[in-house]
Amino acid sequence: MEMAEFIESRKPRWEQLESLLDRSESHGLRELSLEDARTLGRLYRAVSSDLLWVRARSGSADVNAYLNDLVGRAYALTYPGRRPRLADVWGFVARGFPALMRREWRMYVASLLLLLAGVGFGYVGMMVDPDAAHYLVPAEHLNLDPVERAANEAAGDGMSVGDQAQFTTYLFTHNIQVAFLAFALGITVGLGTAIMLFVNGLFLGALAQVYAAKGMAGWFWAWILPHGIPEITAICIAGAAGLVIARGMVAPRGLPRGQAVRQEAVTAVRLLFGTLVLFVLAGFIEGTVSQIHPPKLSVAFKVSFALTVGAGVYAYLLSDWLRGGRAAPDGGAESAHG
Q: How far is CA 89 from CA 24, 92, 270, 312, 328, in A?
């Protein structure tokens, strides 16, 4: 049988299965009649056979992708699986997430470069025009003199424990919001994600120059880097997740655009989920080491601590390369229909 003839003869049942899947996904399987439920199961098996036939004959990529999507959706409804266990979560954190990072490293590098471009622009902008501080420096730091702040911290007259806890909580929640927004703005074809990353880098660069201009660069980086390395890494991964969604819109790779975005969204959500471990680590450090300033903890100690944490974070993220890429991107076996 020729491919065109095969498609023409099978198309009605593909459309029937698609209609049943749309109804089931919108209203639940319980809304189907017994006969419709049986029909869905029968069509799932039949379309699975059609998919194998198309693959065996190297058929059209569009037809193959369309059938694979139908079979995948039917599989998810027919075999919803079990609720995630702790072991499943650990499997993803330990192996699946690093494998996913290996697969999407280009999106991460693009995200990181956007943030670093903002850092450079903010730093140079403050050097060229210090009066731009009102536009480039975060509002809560505009009236803080770096030298005076460092002196107060050294004398023990800095923020109280309660104020530090409140400030840390604010930063923690703010940065998670930034990460989720960078992810969600992927739907703007990535433009919103790019702007978010650039602007956050811009604020960081401008603030770094304010401290550097007062001879406090070491003090500043000793404050920022211990929690900043895992935190900025997490934000850039969230930005990469947004760019993954944008990729589905811009380069659907022969798939219908809606289907491509749905597939990329699964990858993007996994990337976002993986950042939670880094945010927890950053939050813990931010509430402890980052808030203990010289002379209690020296600049050299805090920077060394930060570099050690950074080495650990990137050893974890690059661990799939070290293992030779044997882990599946989702941390488990491939699905039966894929």
A: 28, 5, 11, 20, 14
